Amino acid sequence: MRNRSLHVGAWLLVALAVIAVAAPLLLPDPDRVDYTAKLAPPGATHLLGTDRLGRDLAARLAAGARTTLGSVGAVWLVSVAIGLLAGTLSALAGRLAHETVARVVDVALALPQTVVALAVAGAIGPGMWQLVFAMSATAWAPTARLAHTYVHAARERPDVLAARMAGIGTVRAMAAHVLPGASARVVVVATLGVGQLILSLAALSFLGLGAQPPTAEWGRMLADSRHDVIAAPWLIIAPTTAVFLAVTAVSLLADGAREHIDPGSRSWPRF
């Protein structure tokens, strides 16, 4: 209960998820066009105003949460699964497998996500699933390196050596004594990068590589607001605030989870 970062981040993320899920029951269709209400300021009819096509901004913001957070979640799951598997296998297998995975990881780390996304968009066209694929192609590399480091170091732990001396196979000993702790630490550290994933996905969507009209997505909403930012500043304030709250929520949640697993890793001062 004293871990405030964990609690604040978790409740903030739950609030965003509830808004995204419950919005279709409470708000109008995010794609419904009403030219009689275009660029309407926030008010009783439209809580956050409307865009240049008269679409309700609150409804589009909630729909964008489902698109953005769902895509980020897909990238995170793929990167954690591939990274944990590749890092563990490279630590347990022979030198050839280790060198192969290490070189692939080096290449993935050397490729900027923006460049990869541009290449994928040029090859198969822009779109949300194409962007998820492009980001996942490089996002797994840091997780793989972390998993390899932890599993490789744990091979010489006393409990693992004792299990192997008792006749338990290496794979079984690692699965029972190392992988649970390795998985927990890898998941927590990978969660620390979710905020960066949100920013990267929003930036790439801002460039037109992600969701295509009329799909609502926070980065796309920021791009569409450029033309009316002076006349209707609420168009840029709403998605910017949503991105800020989402990044803050996952950052607090990840920092609190890391402190819960390893109290000595506290990075935020406690007052």
The number of distinct β-strands equals 0
Average pLDDT level: 83
CATH topology: MetI-like fold
Estimate percent helicity.
over 70%
In terms of structural class, how would the helical and strand content be classed? mainly alpha
Count of individual domains = 1
Subcellular location: Cell membrane
Membrane topology: Multi-pass membrane protein
Protein name: Peptide/nickel transport system permease protein
InterPro entries: BP-dependent_transpt_permease (IPR050366), MetI-like (IPR000515), MetI-like_sf (IPR035906)
Could you characterize what this model shows?
This protein has 271 residues and is mainly α. The protein has one domain: Orthogonal Bundle (MetI-like fold). It has eleven helices and no strands. The relative contact order is 0.16.
Provide a short characterization of the protein structure.
InterPro entries: BP-dependent_transpt_permease, MetI-like, MetI-like_sf. By secondary structure, the chain is mainly α.
Give the helices and strands, then pairings:
Layout: H1 4-26, H2 57-92, H3 95-110, H4 113-124, H5 128-154, H6 158-165, H7 170-177, H8 179-192, H9 194-206, H10 218-224, H11 234-261
Helix pairs in contact: 1-2, 1-11, 2-3, 2-5, 2-8, 2-9, 2-11, 3-5, 4-5, 5-8, 5-9, 6-7, 8-11, 9-10, 9-11, 10-11
